[in-house]
Design goal:
By secondary structure, this protein is mostly helical. The protein contains 24 helices and 6 strands. The chain has a two-stranded antiparallel sheet. The protein has a two-stranded antiparallel sheet with strand order 3-4.
Length: about 625
């Protein structure tokens, strides 16, 4: 009976101890067991059942190899292999105990059941917790380094044997993590054939060429759902930043002036990582300290490279000159040159004409025009709408493209440039409206046959007053002040994260204060500016002659300007900055706008009547 019991404890059922419904049980047909013995046997058979199920898990998943890219539904991968290896190591003391018991039973024919119970029962909590861990992993279909999450939680046990066993499993699985970290942090390579790491490459879904893909900023992305609980998200983000930086430099290591990120400290970091890997207990503080050290080294090197070698300040100044209309004389000449064919829906030849005009103006007004010709270009996007959509004018399709030098694309990414283009189109609309209104004023001044204070002149005065103050607010209060703050932050920065954070704050502030991301205000401003442009076209066609269209424009402008004033006033109460308050003060310095802003059309008629009298 004792030999059959030892066989059952090894996971082999027999005639006395049978495997029924996935559980070892005493054969009820055998009548000579005492009730006390049955109680002891049931406790031992529970241990046998746990061991048998653990062994079954190892047999199913150990040495299971899947090809990369295969659609695998079951548990697989390097972490499962490591878990199985750890289970083999943890179960070895239990197996050795059964071998020793077999020897004792063979030598001592009078061995009792209680003797086996005394030797085997200490393994009960270990096997029970291991089987519970396996059940959680199978139920949640845990994959990759997320398996570490379950093991780490199980290792936080108050039972010494259980804690030691779980730490051994965690140590074995951490070997895989450290190998992946070694490749990612120190070499910039991602070895992850089964997609188990919390960093994964971004798939190229747009069928871009290899040359275009190599210039992508985000070739990898962080998988937050795969991060184990004992590795914080901030630490994972630092690991992602280090690997992405190393990967960037390893890809371009052929360029001597770029150098390596970790330089001579790579061997030192390798030894530190090896010490962490050899340690049986995972210490979160030591791990985070190592990650911080590597990150600071990479960040300082990138800071020097981006700010000094690549001259980030100069590139940002170029962005400001073009995307933020810092060179006003350039865009004034561009608007005057291209207004005739950009105010209508463009065709295939329009983009070529616009590019030629833009480059001619840049060469005329910019000293280093040859360099800029290869960096900044204009293009027309989405000028072929669907059949059910209204056609857009050339100005609405206009955007800029900018060739970002290496490695500034870490800060000035394609997503950032798309935001700059949104701001650019709005600023260009405001600039164009201001120029058209001043051009209308010039034309009206040259027309000596008309009275000086007609209702159309009064309407133009109201429009110019609002647009001029809006333009000053955008260019001086917002863009100039925010750019000065950006330069100050760059001068006081010490690492790469501070550089990127400073630029993100700058761009967010510009987008917020220019109301590009505020749909009600942006729509109101856009309609008001288009109303001003329609007025300029009407003046160009009909001069100052009275027309019902002027009254319609006056009504529309008064409605939009009044709504704008109300919207900006409501925003002012929620903002702490002074720029918007300055704009409202300039517009409504004598309370005229808040009193008559909702009815400028009638005020215009009254003023015109008083002037004729």
């Amino acid at each position: 009976m004792l030999h059959e019991l030892l066989f059952a404890l090894n996971g082999f059922p027999g005639h006395t101890f049978m495997l029924i419904d996935g559980k070892f049980k005493v054969n009820e047909a055998i009548p000579y067991f005492h009730p006390a013995e049955i109680g002891i046997l049931n406790q031992l058979l529970d241990i046998a059942t746990d061991y048998w199920k653990i062994e079954d898990f190892i047999k199913k998943h150990n040495n299971t190899v899947f090809s990369t890219g295969q659609n695998n539904e079951g548990l697989h991968g390097m972490y499962v292999q490591a878990l199985c290896s750890g289970l083999e190591e943890v179960l070895e003391p239990y197996r050795q105990t059964l071998i020793d018991l077999e020897k004792s039973v063979l030598k001592n024919k009078t061995a009792q059941l209680s003797f086996i119970q005394h030797k085997v029962f200490p393994f009960q909590p270990v096997l029970r917790n291991i089987y519970g861990l396996i059940q959680q992993i199978q139920f949640r279909k845990a994959h990759g380094c997320f398996i570490l999450d379950f093991i780490y939680k199980s290792s936080c046990s108050g039972v010494a044997n259980v804690k030691e066993a779980m730490q051994r499993l965690l140590h074995e699985c951490h070997k895989v993590l450290y190998k992946q970290l070694l490749r990612w942090i120190l070499q910039g390579n991602l070895y992850d054939p089964f997609e188990e790491f919390f960093v994964k490459p971004v798939e190229n879904k747009d069928d871009k060429s290899e040359e275009e893909v190599s210039e992508l900023v985000n070739k990898f992305q962080l998988r937050v759902e795969m991060i184990p609980c004992h590795i914080s998200v901030s630490t994972a983000e630092k690991i992602f930043f280090i690997g992405e930086s190393i990967q960037l430099f390893e890809r371009d290591r052929d360029l001597e002036d770029r150098g390596g990120v970790l330089k001579d400290q790579e061997a030192e970091f390798y030894n530190q990582l090896a010490e962490l890997s050899d340690s049986l207990e995972f210490r979160v503080a030591d791990f985070e300290r190592f990650v911080d050290t590597v990150r600071e080294t990479a960040s300082r090197h990138l800071h020097t490279l981006v700010l000094d070698n690549a001259d980030l300040r100069q590139e940002l100044d170029i962005l400001r000159s073009f995307y933020l209309l810092g060179r006003g004389e350039l865009f004034q000449a561009f608007i005057e040159e291209t207004e005739s064919y950009l105010q209508i829906p463009p065709n295939a030849a329009t983009e070529y004409d616009v590019r030629q005009s833009f480059m001619a103006i840049v060469r005329k007004l910019w000293t280093d025009s040859d360099t800029l010709a290869n960096k900044v270009k204009v293009e027309l996007t989405n000028y072929k709408p669907a059949s059910n959509e209204p056609k857009k004018t050339g100005w609405e399709c206009l955007s800029l493209t900018y060739s970002v030098p290496w490695p500034l694309h870490l800060i000035i990414s394609p997503k950032v440039l798309s935001k700059y283009n949104e701001v650019f189109r709005f600023l260009l609309l405001a600039k164009r409206t201001q120029l058209m209104l001043h051009s209308a004023w010039t034309e009206q001044k040259q027309n000596k046959r008309q009275l000086r204070f007609t209702d159309t002149w009064q309407l133009r005065n109201h429009m110019m007053f609002v647009v001029d103050n809006l333009q000053y607010y955008l260019m001086a209060d917002v863009l100039e002040s925010q750019f000065c703050l950006l330069m100050n932050r760059l001068d006081h920065s010490t690492n790469f994260e501070e550089l990127r954070h400073a630029h993100d704050i700058f761009l967010s502030s510009v987008i917020s204060n220019t109301f590009v991301n505020n749909q009600p205000v942006n729509q109101c401003l856009t309609e008001m500016l288009h109303c001003c442009l329609q007025y300029c076209k009407l003046v160009d066609l009909q001069g100052d002659s009275k027309s019902p269209k002027f009254e319609e424009l006056a009504t529309n402008f008064s409605r939009q300007s009044s709504l704008l004033f109300k919207l900006l006033s409501s925003i002012k109460s929620r903002q702490t900055g002074s720029q918007l308050a300055q704009l409202l003060l300039r517009i409504d310095y004598n309370r005229y706008f808040s009193t008559y802003g909702h009815d400028i059309g009638k005020v215009t008629e009254l003023s015109a009547a008083e002037s004729t009298v």
